[in-house]
Amino acid sequence: MVIALSGILPRPVDFEETGQKIKDVNMALLNLCLSYEVEFIHSYRYFLKCGKPKVELFAYKDGGLHLQL
Prior knowledge:
This protein is α+β, with helices and mostly antiparallel strands. The protein has one helix at about 15-35, and strands spanning about 5, 40, 50, 50-55. The chain has one domain (about 5-60). Strands 1-2 form a two-stranded parallel sheet. It is elongated.
């Protein structure tokens, strides 16, 4: 059995305020996963374009929500 944890994705609705915090939390999660031999899914960067969230990947009618992988 393999246990995997996905990183937190960026939020387009408040990216300027939360972008760095999400990066910090993802780094802490990665380190925790390494300690416990849990796979970490690096999904954060795939949701960015030119350093900002790809808005077409988020449901703006629902407040910018997205499905976590």
